[in-house]
Design brief:
By secondary structure, the chain is mostly beta strands. It contains three helices and 23 strands. The chain has one domain: Tachylectin-2, Chain A, CATH 2.115.10. A hairpin with a 5-residue loop joins strand 4 and strand 5. 38% of the residues are buried.
């Protein structure tokens, strides 16, 4: 039974005029300077990009669902970009099906939402996949693979399924772990609050718990979930998270659908890697929640989804997916972004 307060809220929403709803475009912030869509002719509906500067050049990963009738079949691709974030050459889809058994040969790729991270001199891809014949929620696990480039083609090597870690359950779908480089060791934030840090093995896929800290974080837009890789900025790591809530808005024409938001946070550069600062409000730029409408793969959404960023002294260029069908880069004022964050207090660690 729906609680009376929730029932009353729904009645008010359904009876409210459109102008009384939240207009997300009116919440655009000055720290978001400009945005640019990256369009891949070969994959016009590519989405959820990560970006990294590797060997002096910009490399973008992306996700593709080749056939909307088979939404679990999903591929990860890579493409070089120039300094204006325009594609160079042809994108390449990665072969993530590294198993050689007959059974695995008939299972399609279900790789999704990669993050690129350089650790030492090695480039890694952290992504979610399901390599079981029968698709179940618990069959989705996080994978790590090294990316190599021979001057023409990209290949992945030493692919590891991370299936042994604290709290592992075959009832839970695993995705959106946050990778970061700690003194040339790959670390992964399993969750944000608690900020549970794991150290994965590239030999057998086991993950050792490094630390866990909890914070009082005031965020009214859904549970904090992983977004971009963590990148060392000064004395702390910076990352961007995502969250979602079901709500009505002007942009959804008053319909209660899932809205995805993003914010930024910092965490300490040494163990226990406690979160130190976080956004108060969602980071919103002009056009984030407007534009072309698409037939949804899963359910109606208004969504942006951050997966990677690069930066210089004054600016951050953040790569995000939009509406599960578009790739965008947005330019942020770095100083203004850090000024927008508030300090958070730790309430426990181990």
């Amino acid at each position: 039974m729906i609680p009376f307060q929730m029932f009353l809220f729904l009645v008010i929403v359904m009876c409210s005029p459109l102008h009384a709803l939240i207009n997300l475009e009116e919440r655009a912030q000055e720290l978001v300077l400009e945005s640019k869509q990256i369009f891949l002719e070969e994959y016009p509906d590519a989405f959820n990009p990560s970006i990294i500067r590797w060997n002096g050049s910009l490399l973008l990963s992306f996700r593709v669902i080749p056939d909307p009738n088979y939404i679990f079949t999903s591929h990860i691709g890579l493409v070089w970009l120039d300094e204006n974030f325009s594609p160079i050459g042809s994108p390449q889809l990665l072969n993530t099906q590294t198993e050689t058994s007959l059974l695995h040969s008939i299972i399609p790729s279900r790789a999704e939402d990669a993050r690129l991270i350089e650790v030492g001199n090695r480039l890694y891809l952290v992504y979610s996949d399901n390599k079981n014949l029968l698709i179940t929620r618990g069959g989705f696990r996080v994978y790590i693979a090294e990316v190599k480039y021979d001057g023409v083609n990209f290949t992945i090597h030493n692919c590891q399924c991370l299936d042994q870690f604290e709290g592992e359950s075959w009832l839970k779908r695993e995705k959106n772990w946050v990778p970061f480089d700690y003194h040339e060791q790959l670390m992964l934030a399993y969750s944000l609050n608690p900020h549970l840090i794991l150290r994965p093995s590239m030999v057998n896929g086991t993950c050792k718990t490094v630390s866990s800290t909890s914070n009082e974080i005031k965020w009214e837009w859904g549970d904090l979930r992983g977004g971009t890789s963590g990148v060392l900025e000064g004395n702390e790591y910076l990352s961007f998270f995502h969250s979602s809530i079901d709500m009505p808005s002007v942009q959804s024409n008053g319909k209660i659908i899932s809205h995805y938001f993003m914010g930024a946070y910092t965490f300490s550069s040494e163990p226990p890697f406690n979160i130190t600062q976080v956004s108060v409000d969602p980071i919103i730029g002009k056009g984030f929640y407007s534009g072309k409408e698409y037939k949804p793969y899963w359910k109606p959404i208004k969504a942006i989804f951050p997966c990677g960023f690069i930066s210089d002294e004054n600016h951050i260029w953040l790569a995000y997916g939009k509406q599960d069908h578009e790739i965008w880069i947005t330019k942020l004022d770095k100083s203004a972004l850090f000024k927008s964050l508030i300090k958070v207090e730790s309430v426990g660690d181990r």
